[in-house]
Design a protein that fits this description.
Elements lengths: L1 E4 L9 E7 L6 E2 L4 E6 L4 E5 L4 E6 L6 E3 L3 E6 L2 H13 L14 H7 L24 E3 L5 E3 L2 H10 L17 H19 L10 E2 L5 E2 L4 H16 L2 E9 L1 H16 L6 H15 L5 E4 L4 E4 L5 E3 L1 E3 L2 E3 L2 E2 L7 H16 L13 E5 L18 E5 L3 E7 L2 E15 L5 H16 L1 H6 L1
Parallel strand pairs: 16-20, 20-21
Antiparallel strand pairs: 1-8, 2-4, 2-7, 3-6, 4-5, 6-8, 9-10, 11-12, 13-23, 14-15, 16-19, 17-18, 21-23, 22-23
Length: 441
């Protein structure tokens, strides 16, 4: 049998919630087939089967909270049959084999057969007093000695039985296979009783008698809440706002739109703006930094990774486009589309939502002009992009209609001074106002 456990995937993830359970007891499963999906505070990930076989037991259902190390599914993969054959082989005793010591039960003989790494252990016909030392003894945290063969230990591990808590029925308190099977059966009965109880966490919507709706916070929503609080109360936010005349940018995008669509490409304003942000960050590196609070050092990044805020069904996600300083506008556009769509489908990988050096959020997509975005800790700044609108503006002492883009940038005032933020915004404005300058960098 094989126990499928919720493994430690790093990044401080210790628990999760079963988002979707695909496994059904009695079904056949193939290696690499999805067993269940788990929602953590960072991503929703599919857990696949490492073996092929039959699903014997499913220990969790959708909405259940699980922890690293929990056995979620038990699969019969044929290993029990192989072990049984090994034990049967160990039972065969040639006629010239020395006699076993008296007082050792037949089951002990079966368990020890074939279990030694070096070879079979010969036992003298002379009966001697049992020693406190044994190749199958271990000490637990309370110095309790456990007598069990390697075969018994393997069986206990397969069945998910804690051998440290068992009282052996064999000679000198040796733990036998029957003890392990009995403990496993008792655990199964307890699990059946627990399944009839109300789960600790419900994924459904609960409506109270007072006509209010209570929705349990998902793991991701809890993480968003904690991160926002940490950012707002750790970083002294300061905001700079401005408007940019992007008439030239709009004309360029409209002119290239049809040609690029014919070639299977989609050019977005966001990809052009991120290109401009990347160039500006290379010129004003203090905005592409973070504060090491422990060492009290400002860490300036020589690479640019842009996080993009995505409105996903499970909540705000910030996938990261890595090394935008090495990407063209079209490559950035492709990365935006790919990451955004996989965020919607809950298919982002853990390394795709970390490592940003600067973040961009586009609330203009929802019709807003200005806002005060919260910094994605530990970045030094976040840029908010508003809705591009036509406005009457004064150009060369004349009132003309221009396309204006509102920008809001929150920055960490511990690292970035107002003058630094102002210079960055001026550079970004020049790039967005002159498309040739933007694309030549």
């Amino acid at each position: 049998m094989f126990n499928v456990k919720f493994a430690d995937i790093g990044e401080g993830i210790h628990e999760g919630v079963v988002f979707k359970m695909h496994a059904i007891e009695g079904d056949k499963i193939e290696e690499s087939e999805v067993l269940f999906s788990v929602e953590t505070d960072k991503v929703t990930a599919d857990i696949t089967s490492p073996v092929s076989g039959e699903i014997l037991k499913v220990n969790a259902k959708e909405g259940d909270e699980i922890f690293v190390g929990d056995t979620i599914i038990v699969i019969e993969d044929g290993s029990s049959e192989i072990l049984s054959n090994m034990q049967m082989d160990g039972e065969e005793t040639p006629s010239n084999t020395p006699m076993k010591a008296e007082g050792v039960e037949a089951e002990s003989e079966k368990e020890e057969g074939g279990a030694s790494v070096v070879g079979e252990i010969e036992v003298s016909s002379e009966l001697i007093k049992s020693s406190d030392e044994s190749h199958c003894e271990i000490l637990n945290a309370s110095t309790k000695k456990i007598l069990a063969t390697p075969v018994a230990r393997k069986l206990a591990k397969d069945l998910g039985v804690d051998i440290q808590k068992l009282k052996g029925s064999g000679p000198a308190g040796r733990i036998m296979k029957a003890d392990i099977h009995a403990a496993s059966k008792e655990m199964s009965e307890v699990a059946k009783i627990e399944k009839t109880k109300e789960p600790v966490r419900k994924a459904s919507i609960v409506k109270s008698n007072e006509e209010v709706i209570r929705i349990p916070m998902s793991m991701i929503r809890k993480a968003i809440s904690e991160n926002m609080v940490k950012s707002k109360f750790t970083i002294p936010h300061t905001v700079v706002m401005d408007e940019v005349d992007v008439t030239d940018l709009v004309a360029f995008r409209d002119g290239a739109k049809e040609m690029l669509l014919e070639e299977g490409h989609k050019l977005t304003y966001l990809s052009l703006i991120i290109k401009g942000v990347t160039i500006a960050l290379k010129k004003h590196e203090i905005l592409n930094s973070s504060l090491d609070e422990e060492k009290q050092e400002i860490v300036i990044k020589k690479f640019v990774n842009i996080g993009i805020a995505v409105d996903a069904p499970q909540g705000l996600m910030v996938p990261v486009i890595k090394r935008t300083d090495h990407l063209s506008v079209l490559e950035i556009a492709f990365a935006i589309k790919d990451l955004s769509s996989r965020a919607q489908e809950k298919k982002l990988k853990l390394d795709e939502i970390k490592g940003s050096t600067f973040t961009v959020t586009n609330y203009g997509a929802f019709g807003a002009s200005f806002g005060v975005p919260i910094i994605n800790h530990p970045d030094a700044a976040v840029l908010g992009i508003g809705l591009i609108v036509k406005k009457p503006v004064v150009v060369a002492d004349e009132i003309v209609i221009r396309h204006m883009l509102p920008l809001s940038m929150s920055f960490d005032h511990r690292i970035v001074d107002g003058a630094d933020a102002g210079r960055f915004m001026q550079t970004l404005k020049k790039l967005l106002m002159n498309t040739n300058l933007l694309l030549l960098n």
